[in-house]
Amino acid sequence: MAFSWYQKSVENGNIIGQYYLGYCYEYGIGIEKDEKKSIYWYEEAFKNGNIDAKLYYADCYRLGKGVKKNEIKHLNIMKLLMLNFNLVIVFIMESEQK
Questions:
Q1: Is the pLDDT reported for residue 93 higher than 90?
Q2: Mean predicted confidence (pLDDT) in 37-41
Q3: Quick one: pLDDT band at residue 1, thresholds 50, 70, 90?
Q4: CATH assignment at residue 21
Q5: CA angle, 10 as apex, 43 and 63 as ends, to 5°?
Q6: Within 13 Å, how many C-alpha atoms sit on residue 71's CB side?
Q7: Which of 38, 52, 65, 68 is packed most tightly, with the most Cβ within 10 A?
Q8: Residue 71 Cα to chain centre, angstroms
Q9: Does the model's pTM come out above 0.85?
Q10: Which domain holds residue 27?
């Protein structure tokens, strides 16, 4: 049931729904397990700004789920995430000092 709601949310452009579709496909929740579709939806979600999806996308490369295992690609994605988080922390700290 949840799977169909996530599909409907994706049809309306919801990036959280994109992430959850990836999750459902990865673990076979409400649909047959399909790691290739999982990575597709994680990628769509992270391209649209969903940070959780980017973590799961990177993990797929670390574990070889739906893609060829590639630890270098995994580490590069994680470096980008760390850089993004560092920029957010700096912004917050600067805002608090004003």
A1: no
A2: 96
A3: confident
A4: 1.25.40.10
A5: 30
A6: 0
A7: 38
A8: 17
A9: no
A10: 2-97
